[in-house]
From TrEMBL:
Membrane topology of this protein: Multi-pass membrane protein
Record has Cell membrane as a keyword: yes
PROSITE patterns: EAL
Source species: Cupriavidus campinensis
Residues passing through the membrane, by range: 244-268
Main location: membrane
Record-listed E.C. numbers: 3.1.4.52
UniProt signal peptide: none
Cell inner membrane found in the keyword field: no
Protein name: cyclic-guanylate-specific phosphodiesterase
Places the protein is found: Cell membrane
Superkingdom assignment: Bacteria
UniProt-listed InterPro entries: CSS-motif_dom (IPR024744), Cyclic-di-GMP_PDE-like (IPR050706), EAL_dom (IPR001633), EAL_sf (IPR035919)
Record-annotated EAL domain positions: 270-519
Length: 526
């Protein structure tokens, strides 16, 4: 088998390939987008987690200073510095994280564990609004009165009975910077602590003006007036984007490819078949077989039905049942029907040029929808021997689906003098409705109704014949194989019949050329 033949079914049209490519591109792009969105969510979640962790760590530091400060230093409040200087130094050392502790009286810091007696108004740290300062309790400063460029977190613990008196603790920024920088290990790039309007980042850089950090995730403390903003490091973000973007993108591409492959695999056999049919037409692999249609009363042939036959060079004889339905749903049926019509008319002209004989051809609904179909048939009929003509057979199942278009086509055919037959009558529902609505000349009873010679079968057949005759239709019974069936037809008044009993379908020469076909007045004149 040539490789060309092997891949025959895969030669899809450029539009199919383009659509497939688009499907792959769209699924991949969508998956990439979904992947990026997911990665961004992970980045946001990580930032929020780090921010909340850092807030909790700083809360723990402040709470420790608060607790230990209240226990060891606060009781010294209000006492003269000369008296408490030494115990203050000693007790300050019990308080973790604190660089210094100092006592406050009348809103003035008067005694420091680091410097002894001093005089610094509380407002130096907390601003003029000391009432608010007492409420706020903590402040982030860039320096202290005694140390330049040494940011610190300052905590004020006022005494419950006298708020202008209390203790101040300076928490070293080193602890805070360490805590902030810890977030870097979890993918954070920038971690900034803000207290009021002051801010300090993981490198210890202090700003006293509010500086919004773009794209940051913020976590606020519920215990203290502080917040922590976190921005993931570019390396962490791009790693997640790359990992999930690529991963989900690859899944999208795979799904797209699977969808396209599925479509192509499902469509390939059909395309292979259609291609083989087209090729078969070009290579003259098709021919027609004819079966006489006889008058039941005399057994004289009054017409023939043409059946398509396909002899494939590799697959052998292929019955129409295994390909015609697929072909009928595509434009290829136009080529098939055109071939059948021309071949049938040629055979008629060649083998029985002087006989008045009707030849029936099976036609698909798609043929009826084609503009010019009726005109083409009329021209063919005009080229046939005088008295002979074409009969269009259409299977009833197709008609009802497209009532309007079928009716229009039938009218045009009727006008052109072409006769119409409903094929396989009884195989679907709504038969009666269809008989009433379409201008048929013949009704062909399906084989399944002519096989049953029981009383029930007879009754059914009899009623079909009565109904058909009521609508002035000539009844043709299909699939007659036995004398018993023939006798039944005669009994119930069927006009014509075809079947193996009279003649199996055979070549044009055998059926039309050997004198078997009789000249007739055509029962269809009835
Ligand atoms: P159909 O038009 O109802 O044709 C009758 C089928 O019954 C034919 O089969 C015929 O060979 C077969 N047949 C005739 N007498 C007997 C009998 O006594 N016993 C049995 N068991 N069968 C009998 P075929 O040729 O295989 O065609 C099958 C169907 O394929 C046809 O049903 C028709 O619907 C479709 N078909 C055939 N040729 C064409 C064509 O040229 N164009 C289109 N569109 N369809 C066609
Ligand atoms: Mg038929
Ligand atoms: Mg039939």
């Amino acid at each position: 088998m040539a490789w060309r033949d092997r891949f025959e079914g895969w030669s899809f049209s450029p539009v199919t390939w383009l659509v497939s490519l688009l499907v792959c591109a769209v699924t991949t792009a969508t998956a990439l987008w979904v992947g990026e969105q997911y990665a961004q969510q992970l980045v946001d979640r990580r930032e929020s987690m780090v921010a909340r962790d850092v807030v909790a760590a700083i809360e723990r530091i402040i709470a420790t200073v608060e607790r230990e400060g209240a226990r060891h230093v606060a009781p010294l409040a209000g006492k003269p510095c000369a008296e408490i200087g030494r115990p203050l130094r000693e007790r300050e050392s019990y308080i973790p994280y604190a660089r210094a502790a100092a006592m406050v009286a009348n809103d003035v810091i008067y005694c420091s564990s680091a410097r002894g007696e001093i005089k610094v108004p509380l407002s130096w740290y907390f601003g003029d609004n000391t009432a608010a300062a007492r409420h706020q309790r903590i402040v982030l400063v860039g320096r202290t009165p005694f140390r330049e460029q040494a940011p610190a977190l300052v905590l004020y613990l006022p005494s419950a009975s006298q708020p202008s008196q209390g203790a101040v603790f300076v928490i070293d920024s080193t602890y805070l910077v360490d805590t902030l920088a810890h977030g870097k290990e979890f993918g954070a790039g920038t971690i900034a602590l803000s207290v009021g309007e002051a801010m300090m980042d993981q490198d210890g850089t202090y700003r006293d003006a509010p500086t919004p950090i773009p794209l940051s995730t913020l976590a606020r403390s519920s215990a203290y007036p502080l917040a922590v903003a976190v921005v993931a490091s570019p390396a962490f973000s791009s790693e997640l984007m790359r990992r999930y973007g690529l991963f989900v993108g690859a899944i999208g591409l795979l799904l797209g490819l699977l969808a396209v492959a599925g479509f192509l695999i499902v469509a390939a056999p059909k395309r292979l078949l259609l291609q083989a049919v087209r090729q078969g037409l070009r290579r003259r692999e098709f021919h027609l077989a004819y079966q006489p249609i006889v008058a039941v009363r005399t057994r004289e042939t009054i017409g023939v039905e043409a059946f398509l036959r396909w002899r494939h060079p590799r697959w052998g004889m292929i019955p129409p049942a295994s390909f015609i339905e697929t072909v009928e749903s595509t434009a290829v049926i136009d080529d098939i029907t055109r071939f059948v019509l021309h071949q049938a008319v040629n055979d008629m002209n060649r083998y029985c040029p002087t006989r008045a004989l009707h030849v029936a051809v099976n036609v698909a609904p798609l043929n009826l929808r084609r503009k010019g179909f009726a005109a083409e048939l009329a021209a063919l009929q005009a080229s046939m021997p005088a008295g002979s003509g074409l009969v269009v057979e259409i299977t009833e199942r197709h008609l009802l689906a497209d009532h309007g278009a079928a009716m229009e086509a039938f009218d045009r055919l009727h006008h052109a003098g072409i006769r119409l037959a409903v094929d396989d009558f009884g195989t679907r529902n709504n038969n009666l409705d269809m008989i009433r609505n379409f201008p048929f000349d013949y009704l062909k009873i399906d084989r399944q109704f002519t096989q049953d010679v029981s009383p029930d079968g007879r009754a059914l057949l009899r009623s079909i014949v009565a109904m058909a005759h009521h609508f002035r239709l000539v009844v043709i019974a299909e699939g007659i194989e036995s004398e018993a069936q023939h006798a039944l037809l005669a009994e119930v008044g069927v006009d014509c019949a075809q079947g193996y009993l009279y003649r199996r379908p055979a070549s044009a020469r055998e059926i039309l050329g050997d004198g078997e076909v009789q000249e007739t007045e055509a029962v269809v004149a009835a």
